Amino acid sequence: MSADAATESFTFQAEVSKLLDLMIHSLYREKDIFLRELISNASDACDKLRYAALTESTLLADDPDLKVMIELNKGSRTITVTDNGIGMSRAELIENLGTIARSGTEAFVKSLTEGKADPVSLIGQFGVGFYSIFMVADRVDVVTRRAGEAEGWRWQSDGTGTFTITPEEEARRGAAITLHLRDDASEYLDADRIRQIVRTYSDHIALPIKLMGESKAGSETLNSAAALWTRPRSEITDEKAKEFYHHVAHMAGDPWLTIHLRAEGRMEYAALLFVPDRRPFDLFEPQRRHRVKLYVKRVFITDDCEGLLPRYLRFMRGVVDSSDLPLNISRETLQNNPLLAKIRSGLVKRVIGDLDKKAADATSDYAAFWGNFGAVLKEGMYEDSENRAALIKLARFQTLNGKPGEWHSLDDYVGRMREGQTAIYYITGDSPEALRKSPQIEGFRARGLDVLLMSDAIDHFWLPTVGEHSGKPFRSVTQGSADLDAIPPLDGDKAGEAEATPQNELDKLIALVKLSLGDQVKDVRTSARLTDSAVCLIADAGDIDMHLERLLRSQQRDVTAQKRILELNPRHKLIRSLAHLVGQAGASQTLEDAAHLLFDQARLMEGEPLEDANAFARRLSDVLVRAFEARAA
Ligand code: ADP
Q1: 87 lines ligand 1 (CB under 6 A)
Q2: What's the CATH fold of domain 228-361?
Q3: Which of these CATH numbers, 3.30.565.10, 3.90.1300.10, 3.40.640.10, 1.25.40.10, describes 3-221?
Q4: Which among 36, 64, 340, 550 has the fewest CB atoms less than 10 Å away?
Q5: pLDDT at residue 103, rounded to an integer
């Protein structure tokens, strides 16, 4: 057959070859999953055909009962999984069984090369299940005919770099995948073994999965063959839900939360939704697509229905099945259907409600969820005015007074505000760890005032939208005046005891620093924010916060650099000494250098690049030289 003149050879995409190599040499014990993947693909293929037949009924007419068949042949040591679904054209064979879907390739190659390549989790995450057959087979034949097309094809490969495609007259609609089993995979010729695997992994599949009898006389159906989400909740065991999750979500791991919902009455729909226990790799892709599948009256319609769920719930996986939407609806007009908006609103309420319960009943478990998806859910605080209040209740934050990794709600924060404190303080930056070291929060720490540590880009957007909580406005500690004078430092705080610089000397120093820095800064002033550091930078009230400016710049957005306010700590020894020097003979060069060094130092602490690194180095060494000479003298 392979000597056929019509046979063409192809090379697998490099990533696929790598993956196949991994599969072939895999010592992974759970090889059984190859069957789950084949059945899952067969079921998807039948779903696609059913959808196509909505507009072109002839596609289904000649063989209307969709099913999956498994045939074991001990003589030829083969197992064949056959479906009568949509099948593949020649071009689709090359694309689907020779490459990896584009969206995942980059992330996929990354995890392959990072050596985290556990085959089973790769399969789960990246939808490369077909290739798992090479864990058990040393040769594979795929005979297929695309529904509505006249020609069929045979795809053949031994999984080592190349595959061939040959015309195949005998091919029937759908796909028949024959695995020539490896010597160490004889167990899959045993009918009992197959029964057990199908019941374990594929019971939830909504099509009959049949095992052909040895005599070819009859067949037995191995699964319950009813859509899992339509069954009463008591029948949806954790095990079944988990297997369905693997099938529908293409995710390794287990669902963190399972939501089964059946709306009856004015609107009828069922949903089986999952929150994963880990981040899907495409969570932060710019499209922000959700992956929940929409069915209408058990017929799969699309997994790309934007209006079904808001983007801030895009980490959810699962299915929604509506009895009210028209079956002949096109994917395009679906978007504007008012019923869809109602379903969406019902789903959102339910998901938020269930998350709220988890937050109340299982605090540490909820922290894990928040760590994975908090940054996504917060987008809703910005976008979804209808559910904003409920989402704010779900939000958790790390705080200055809390332990690293501990999460607190805004109500917690407000409940622990100090007497006289009128605002909810926050600081934005790259990570909570880095933020804890910021100079701007020193004065807050000394006063026992808690500060929310915000490190998600989205924080810059929801904060101004939400504005306040429990009547307390949000206030950035790196912006505007600190207004800390009303609140005394905690007892025993040493910073308060340090001697302040005399006001007249301080005024002169400030005037001199202003003069030296010119229009590099917006202003120079004293600070109540600082206890340990000599200086820090602050954004003027109404100016864009410093972290946001950096963030926008890192995204190549057009943003004009804003001038900042340099704040000096009047209780810091360096400031005191400098202020004392002002007006003394021979000190002007040192003071000029010091003014620039203070500014550069503040920029460095902010994570800003130096404007002139050479000038910085020259000034620093000049100042040091003078200091050493003074000592030696
Ligand atoms: P996934 O199913 O996650 O997309 P796979 O590697 O399992 O990834 O399959 C790759 C593609 O091959 C599928 O997306 C589908 O387009 C095609 N395919 C696999 N099996 C079949 C089948 N039985 N019938 C039709 N197409 C199939």
Answers
A1: yes
A2: Ribosomal Protein S5; domain 2 (3.30.230)
A3: 3.30.565.10
A4: 64
A5: 62
- Nearest-CA residue for ligand 1 atom 15 is 96
100 lines ligand 1 (CB under 6 A): no
CATH 3.30.230.80 positions along the chain are 228-361
Distance CA 411, CA 391 (A): 13
Per-residue pLDDT, 332: 76
248 pocket-lining for ligand 1 (C-beta < 6 Å): no
Whether 208 is in the pocket of ligand 1, judged by its Cβ within 6 Å, is no
Tell how far the Cα of 41 is from the centroid of ligand 1, in angstroms: 5
Cβ density class 565-588: b for 16+ within 10 Å, e for less = bbbbbbbbebbbebbebbeeeeee
The rounded distance, in Å, linking the Cα atoms of 465 and 391 is 13
Q: What is the mean pLDDT of each run of 10 residues along the chain (633 residues)?
A: 75 88 77 92 95 93 95 97 98 92 69 67 75 94 97 96 95 98 96 94 91 80 90 91 90 92 92 95 87 91 91 97 86 85 96 97 92 97 97 98 95 95 96 96 95 96 96 96 83 64 94 96 94 96 92 85 94 95 92 97 92 94 92 82
Alpha-carbon distance of 208 to 67, in angstroms, equals: 5
CB 446 within 8 A of CB 493: yes
Residues spanned by CATH 1.20.120.790 within the chain?
498-541+558-632
pLDDT of residue 492: 61
Alpha helices in 483-545 (DSSP H): 503-517
Q: Domain 498-541+558-632: what homologous superfamily?
A: Heat shock protein 90, C-terminal domain (1.20.120.790)
Spatial separation of the C-alpha atoms in residues 382 and 385, rounded to whole Å: 7
Backbone angles phi, psi at 151, to 5 degrees: -95, 145
**Which of 434, 431, 435, 457 lies closest to 444, judged by CA?**
435
Domain with CATH 3.40.50.11260 in the chain: 407-497
Contact 144, 171 (CB under 8 A): yes
DSSP for 266-322 reads SS-EEEEEEEESS--TTTT-TT-----EEEETTEEEES--GGGS-GGGTT-EEEEEE
pLDDT in the model for residue 1: 46
**136 DSSP assignment:** T
Residue among 35, 96, 99, 250 whose CB has most ligand 1 atoms within 8 A, to mutate: 96
Fold of 407-497: Rossmann fold (3.40.50)
Distance of CA 105 to the CA centre of its chain: 16
User: By C-alpha distance, which of 470, 483, 475, 469 is closest to 454?
Assistant: 475
- Residue 83 Cβ < 6 Å to ligand 1: yes
Phi, psi of 211 (to 5 degrees): -105, 120
The DSSP symbol for 236 reads -
Alpha carbon distance 322, 360 (integer Å) = 31
For ligand 1, whether the C-beta of 128 sits within 6 Å is yes
